[in-house]
Design brief:
mainly alpha; 4 helices; elongated; transmembrane helix; membrane; transmembrane
């Protein structure tokens, strides 16, 4: 009960598949719908483009401000590190001093430590405020980006609607109705 396989039929099928695949790969894909860049823009599309350009400039401005805010956070962080080092140095110096005879210097150093602590806390508040501003700028940028994408989709939708459902002028519509009546 052995099956007999016709190798010539297999060869013909394989050759046909190979030629079909070669034909598919060699054929360039041609889109029948013209892309937005090949045809002139309509008045509504021009206004959308101008709105998009204004939004892109706003995004660039927001990005510059975010970069400046980030630099400010980096400077404040470096300042916080210096203050923390100064506080550590003052604390180690206070530990080395003898209380009965160096009480005046100890009091000055503890006052300087308190001042450094307050300054340190203020810097934390400033970083918090700047970080919140950066977050708000990021949300503004995201909103503008979404609006730009929405305008793109709206323009493409309008373009496709014009291609798929062209507007028939009223003069031609009456002529078509007369032709149908005849």
């Amino acid at each position: 009960m052995a099956l007999k396989v016709d190798h010539t039929a297999d060869l013909i099928i394989m050759m046909t598949l190979l030629f079909t695949m070669a034909l598919i790969w060699a054929t360039a894909f041609i889109d029948t719908l013209p892309p937005l860049g090949d045809t002139p823009l309509t008045a509504s599309e021009v206004s959308h483009r101008r709105t998009q350009e204004a939004m892109k400039k706003q995004i660039e401005n927001i990005e510059k401000h975010r970069q400046l805010a980030f630099e400010k956070v980096c400077r404040i962080t470096a300042q916080r590190i210096k203050i923390a080092e100064r506080m550590h140095n003052l604390q180690t110096a206070v530990k080395k001093l003898k209380p009965p005879r160096d009480i005046g210097r100890i009091a000055e150093m503890k006052k300087a430590i308190r001042y450094c602590g307050k300054e340190h806390e203020e810097l934390y508040g400033i970083v918090d405020d700047v970080s919140h501003q950066m977050y708000q700028m990021l949300m503004q940028r995201l909103t503008l980006r979404r609006n730009i994408d929405s305008l793109d989709l709206q323009m493409e939708r309008d373009r496709l609607a014009d291609l798929l459902y062209p507007h028939i002028p009223l003069d031609l519509e009456e002529d078509v109705k007369e032709d149908v009546k005849k």
